[in-house]
């Protein structure tokens, strides 16, 4: 029997609430018998924490996170899971683990990354072989906070000394990752950009994932300079594509928000590189998504009440090779432009059409 759906939200994002209310759902609090909870990751983790909570979900409840989403979404864990997956694929002699001169052909989609301070010596070994530019990112932060670039070891040493870092080698909120910087990104009008794509997962075992048809590019507002080496490594407006960073720059345009739809990108690239290469690029991106999910599938929760919409951040280099930068468990639902609002409303609608049973009124 259908009953009126109830929903609960931790966030006041209007794209969500408008959608739920349009369906006639009733807004309730977290303690009030909800059917559908759009929560933040912390609330979700607390809800599933059997030591502090004895909440048991009933058959007619669903929630928008897997309790251990961090296996995919924390920068250091993603790297570790992908490394382990590659080893497993090698053991089974899978074609996907093909190696040429010690380099993976198909599973080389994350820039080489080390966890600091734990992997400092491994990083030094790699750095001595190939110095180039590296990017430092704190594991526990987002929106570009705490990120900086280095192209000399002395910069890292100076930073560590000033920060009195590391105090010890345990993984804490002070843990950083250091990744090889993609020095040759594909530029459009001289500017760097990344892609934000959305992937819905309703189950990891068996893996059931859906890639949302639409996405967008986020452009830097300052031109990128690269000849034989990256210049202006301190100019974050040329290097970090996060909207939260770009918004603080003088050149940020709040009408288009530095965003372009993936449809526009495809048309533009087809014009300059040809449709065949564009198709290959987007096939390669789907391949990255699939294998990143397979890399965590065995460690993810099997709870049938959970689904998750991931925000994939991809950088394309000038050879049209896509690189996975990060996976977000709570991609922003803030709407900075009109097109943003349309896209995000469509995204929420599509998610609901998959996660709700066909009647759409009860879970
Ligand atoms: N290896 C890399 N090579 C080139 N650019 C990179 C690399 N890693 C990150 N960037 C740039 O830095 C930006 C911030 O990186 P990242 O998304 O990992 O950090 P964040 O602060 O966690 O952001 P978010 O708010 O999306 O979680 C990216 O959007 C990208 O533009």
From TrEMBL:
PANTHER family: POLYGLUTAMYLASE COMPLEX SUBUNIT TTLL1, TUBULIN POLYGLUTAMYLASE. It comes from Cinara cedri. Part of the neuronal tubulin polyglutamylase complex which contains TPGS1, TPGS2, TTLL1, LRRC49 and NICN1. Interacts with PCM1, CSTPP1 and LRRC49. This is Polyglutamylase complex subunit TTLL1. InterPro entries: TTL/TTLL_fam. It catalyses: (L-glutamyl)(n)-gamma-L-glutamyl-L-glutamyl-[protein] + L-glutamate + ATP = (L-glutamyl)(n+1)-gamma-L-glutamyl-L-glutamyl-[protein] + ADP + phosphate + H(+). One of its GO terms (molecular function) is ATP binding. It is found in: Cytoplasm, Cytoskeleton, Cilium basal body. GO terms for cellular component: ciliary basal body; microtubule. Its main location: cytoplasm. Belongs to the tubulin polyglutamylase family. One of its GO terms (biological process) is microtubule cytoskeleton organization. Keywords: ATP-binding, Cell projection, Cilium, Cytoplasm, Cytoskeleton, Ligase, Microtubule, Nucleotide-binding.
